[in-house]
Write a structure and sequence with these properties.
The protein is an alpha/beta fold. The chain has two domains: 58 residues, 2,3-Dihydroxybiphenyl 1,2-Dioxygenase, domain 1; 81 residues, 2,3-Dihydroxybiphenyl 1,2-Dioxygenase, domain 1. Helices cover 23% and strands 24% of the residues. The strands form two sheets. The chain has a four-stranded mixed beta sheet, covered by helices on one side.
């Protein structure tokens, strides 16, 4: 608890601006397994409303809004969104990266060598088709280190 007794429970959603919400939802589904949250799907009937997607049944969400994406402007919008996975899922993601055509933040193809060893975690950094920076990270450091040998 904070000093005044109030604290939030968790991050609910991050807003992301994309040219086409359904196309973006398809990409996030193929790459990260995010699903459209049916109970909020009607919000996207409004051209200014979000299409809510989630990798975990709605506990945390991305709100896809129609608009101009961040693109290559590094100080526009948020810096990145990080998604946590276990060690086997991290390795599976790296294995699928080339077939998905994913690029790292420099625009180079994402490969197993793209994993960054943070000492206690491994991360891989990449962008969506709209230039938003994304991260997949795992705290199962030792298992990943062994698998990458």
């Amino acid at each position: 608890m904070s000093g005044d007794g109030f604290r939030v429970d968790q991050i609910d959603h991050v807003e992301v601006f994309v040219p086409d919400r359904r196309e973006a939802a398809d990409w996030y589904h193929r790459v990260l397994g995010c699903e459209i949250i049916p109970e909020y799907a009607e919000w996207s009937d409004d051209p200014r409303g979000p299409l809510m997607i989630s990798p975990d049944g709605g506990a945390t969400k991305l709100a896809l809004f129609r608009g101009e994406p961040q693109g290559a402007r590094p100080t526009a919008g948020f810096h990145l969104v990080a998604f946590r996975v276990d060690g086997p899922a991290f390795m599976e993601f790296l294995a699928r990266a080339s077939e998905l055509g994913l690029k790292d933040v420099r625009g180079e193809p994402l490969t197993q060598e793209s994993g960054v060893d943070h000492g206690k975690a491994y991360s891989v950094y990449f962008t969506d088709p709209y230039g938003h920076r994304l991260e997949v990270t795992s705290y199962q450091h030792e298992a990943i280190r062994q698998a990458l040998k």
